[in-house]
Design brief:
The chain is built from 14 helices and no strands. The chain is mainly α. The protein has one domain.
Length: about 350
Amino acid sequence: MNEEKENNKKKFSITAELFKNYRKHFLDKTSMVTILFLVVAICLVLAFLVPISLLISVPFLVLPFLVGVIIENYATNGGIDFKASRLFRCFSLYYNSSTFGCFSVLGAILKTMIVYLISNNLFLIIFHFSIGLADPSYASIINSVAAVENIGGLNKIIQDLLENQTYIYISNLTSIISFGLASYTFIHHVLTHSFKLCFNAFGKKIYPMQAITMMHRRAFPRFRKDFYLDYYSSFWFIILLFIGGYVGGSLIGLKLLNLNGPQCGVVGLALAISVTIYFIPYIYDTYQVMSTIDNIYYLEALVELYAEGKLNGLVTLSEIEKESITKFTNELKNIIEETKKEIKKKDK
């Protein structure tokens, strides 16, 4: 219990310092996020008309600007004044070998589509039995399918179903929930995978992102628990704001604007992003603090993979570098273990 209280005090202290740093560079940090927000807004307007366009606009427009914001945010922390012109060079940075692939976009899209399809079918079934069959008109249309005799009769049933208010409500509700879960999945994937950028941002040497991705696969299981503990304890209120914004925006679209399900989802996403996007500097400032410890696992993986010959053609390490990295990681691990022991002694 005492250890938990001590950790909570430290977390609060670090969070307070991060927000203090945000206030110190408020103009620079909000300016870069505002540019990103305008780009996102353009994509959302397009998505309102054609929701599937997000699969194109986000990977090829939003994410390059996000890389630019991340890099500019860290530059601002280092005392370099923000310049919008540098942010607009983000496309060349995004496709640079040291950053390209940091978000694992194909994996994100695959996860998003799976979540959408599963949740869409699941909630459609749930609402069919819980809401649909409770309406006699809806139940009558469904039951009439068994008596259909020809294609013309089936088309008539489908048309009646599409015009049924209960079916429309179920369809809209299902789309809203599925779109929200898929959007959260994509954003969560991008945020967690972008942690890999910290290794190059704060390391002494720049490595190809292909190599860092291999190191991430080896290293992340070793600190996954600590990472997510820090992640959720630092960003829980942002997640709640996102959920609240999405629900509120979707209800506005459904109840006040009488929009269809996908359009309500886009409105909900727009409001969710509006109330959370300015926390991006705080998120990556937190990552900067987390990386001071977690980067040792990447360094450890680097030496292991290099020794196994899996980084051939990507990374070159001298014997001195390997010895230096191994010595550094061992020393830092010893410091961490000693700190944990001291905390336990104080608790006793």
